[in-house]
Amino acid sequence: MSRPGFEREERIQFDLEDCGFETLALRAGQLRSGEGEHGDPICTTSSFVFSSAREAAARFDGEEEGNIYSRFTNPTVRAFEQRIAAMEGGDRAVATASGMAAILSVAMSLLKVGDHIVCSRSVFGSTVSLFQKYISRAGIETTFVDPTDLEAWKGAVQDNTRLLFLETPSNPLSELTDIQAVAAIAHEADALLAVDNCFCTPALQQPLLLGADIVVHSATKYLDGQGRCIGGAVVGREQEMEEVFGFIRTGGACMSPFNAWVFLKGLETLSLRMREHCRNAQELAQWLQQQPGIDKVHYAGLEDHPQHELAQRQQKGFGGVLSFEVAGGQEQAWRFIDATEMVSITGNLGDVKTTITHPYTTTHGRMSAEDKDGAGIGKNLIRLSVGLEALDDLKADMQRGLNAL
Ligand SMILES: *Cc1c(COP(=O)(O)O)cnc(C)c1O
C-alpha cells in the first residue's frame, strides 16, 4: 500500500564519468522536485514522511534507502555533496556545518584514544587550537612540522600515527607541501593523509588524484565565493566517508539546506572565479614586489618563490591569496591597512571582494608568539585575499597603504 505523492523527487542521472570539470560543477548532483524547475530546489524540511508504517520501519532499519530527518540526509544537501565529490574526484562527500566541523569530524570519526596526528604547523589557526586543545583531550596527540620539509614529516611519524594533515598553499605565507610525497609517507606508515583544499579548491588542485585519502573544505571561502554562508565538506573514499557521515549524523554538525543551495550556486561559477582570482593576484603580487616599502611578497606565482616549480606541477593556478611584509613592524602594517579605502578589513577570504587582514593580531592571534615565530608569521605581515575588482582600483588602494608607511 502506498500513498500518493511519493514519486516526485527526481534526480538527473546521466553518466558523468567522462564529463569535464566545468560540466561537473554545473550538472553533478543536479536536483529537480518533479515540477520541472530548472534551478535546484531548496528542500526546507526537518523531517520526511513515509508512505506506510512498513516503509518507515524499513528506512529506520537501513533496509531501504531514503530520507528520514534532515540531520541525517536532505536532498539539497545531498546535491551539494554529490557535486563537490565529483569535482574533487572522490567517491562520496559529507557536508558539514562549517570547515572546522569538517576537520573535527575527520579526527573524531577516524581516530581513537592513543592515536597520533602529524600536522603541518602552517595550518588555519583554529585547526591548531582544535588539535592542541580539544582533540588532545581524547588522548590523541599532535606533532606539528615544517610543511615544506619532507624529512620532518618522516621523522615525526610514530608507530601510532594514523593521520597526516596539511593545507597547501598555506595561510598566510603561501608555503606549499608536496602532496604526492607526503601521501607516500602516510601510506608507508599505514596512516591517512587529509588535505585542507580551501585555498586552491578543486578548480586548481585535486589532492585525491595526487594520492591524498581525504579532502576537507571550508565551503565558507571560495566554494561560496561571495561571503554569504558558513559550511564545510569532507570528501574521500566510501569506507572513510561512512565513518565521517556517522559522526556528523550523530554529532549534529550538519549543513542546512539553504546553505547547501548557496554553495551549489557558488560551485557553478567556481572555475571562472578562480581563474580571475589567480589573474588579479598574480598581477598584484608582481606590482607589490616592485614597490618601495614592501620587503617581501609571498605568492607561489612569483618566479622567486622557493616552491614555484612545485606549484606549477601540483596546481592548475597559483590562487587568490597572497601576503606581504611591509618595512617596519605592527605599527606600519596597521597604518597600511587603515589607509586603504576600498578593500574590506576582515578576517575572511575567498570572496569576490578583496579582503585585507593582519594575521598576527587577528586570524592567527590565538597562536603563541613562539608558534607564530616558528611559522614565520611576523608583525609586519599583511594578508590579501585578492578579489575581482578592476586591477587598477586595487593598485590604487594598495598605493594608499604604501603612502601611509
Ligand atoms: C576558514 C578556514 C577553515 C575553517 O572554516 P570555517 O568554515 O570558518 O569553519 C579551515 N581551513 C582553512 C584553510 C580556512 O581558511
Low-confidence stretches: none
**What fraction of the residues are assigned to beta strands by DSSP?**
15-25%
Shape type: globular
Distinct ligands, ions and cofactors found in the model = pyridoxal-5'-phosphate
Q: What's the order of the H and E elements?
A: EHEHHEHEHEHEHEHEEHHHEHEHEEHEH
Write the CATH fold name of the largest domain. Aspartate Aminotransferase, domain 2
Model description:
With 405 residues, the protein is α/β, with parallel strands linked by helices. The chain folds into 2 domains: 259 residues, 3-Layer(aba) Sandwich (Aspartate Aminotransferase, domain 2); 132 residues, Aspartate Aminotransferase, domain 1, CATH 3.90.1150.10. The chain has 15 helices and 14 strands. The strands form 3 sheets. The protein has a 7-stranded mixed beta sheet, sandwiched between helices. A 5-stranded mixed beta sheet has the order 10-11-14-13-12, covered by helices on one side. Strand 4, helix 5 and strand 5 form a beta-alpha-beta unit. Helix 1 runs antiparallel to helix 3 and helix 11 runs parallel beside helix 15. It is globular, with a radius of gyration of 22 Å. The termini are far apart. The mean pLDDT is 94. Pyridoxal-5'-phosphate binds next to helix 4.
Highlighted features:
single chain; 405 residues; alpha/beta; Aspartate Aminotransferase, domain 2; Aspartate Aminotransferase, domain 1; 2 domains; seven-stranded mixed sheet; five-stranded mixed sheet; 14 strands; 15% strand; binds pyridoxal-5'-phosphate
